[in-house]
Design a protein that fits this description.
rod-shaped; 83% helix; 144 residues
Length: 144
């Protein structure tokens, strides 16, 4: 659009219709633009340099933050591994204790059952021995 306007401005009227007036020359609008913009771009050079400094500082800070975060993450992972080892040991000890308690209960039950069977066996044995002796005595009396 600006190129179209530039073309149209070149053919602007120079004078009013009528008698002869001063001679018109097409205006070159682009001739003064570079000299006008030199000061603007010179002022922007400082801003561009500031932006580059800010960008490099931000990059350095981001790199430092990433390194710190990686170190923190590595420390957290090491702590978690150490805690996991401790937790595993605690859980293993708890399972072992439960297993030992179950073994103790089973052993106590087995001992009680064995004691009961032994008593019952002795009582039966006493009766059976008495019956056998009575039978033997009866046999001995019958044969004599």
């Amino acid at each position: 659009m600006s190129t179209m306007l530039d073309r149209l401005r070149r053919f602007r009227p120079v004078g009013t219709p009528g008698g002869a007036g001063p001679v018109g020359v097409p205006v070159d609008t682009r001739a003064g633009v570079p000299t006008e913009l030199v000061a603007v771009f010179a002022a922007l050079d400082a801003v561009i340099a500031d932006c580059a400094d800010i960008r490099s500082q931000a990059t350095e800070r981001a790199t430092a933050l990433v390194a710190t975060a990686q170190a923190d993450a590595a420390g957290m992972a090491a702590d978690a591994r150490a805690r996991a080892t401790g937790e595993r040991a605690e859980v293993a000890a708890a399972i072992q204790a439960r297993g030992d308690a179950a073994v103790d209960r089973t052993l106590a039950t087995a001992v009680a059952d064995a004691t009961h069977l032994e008593r019952a066996g002795r009582q039966r044995m006493d009766r059976l021995v008495a019956l056998v002796l009575d039978q033997l005595r009866a046999d001995v009396r019958g044969t004599v």
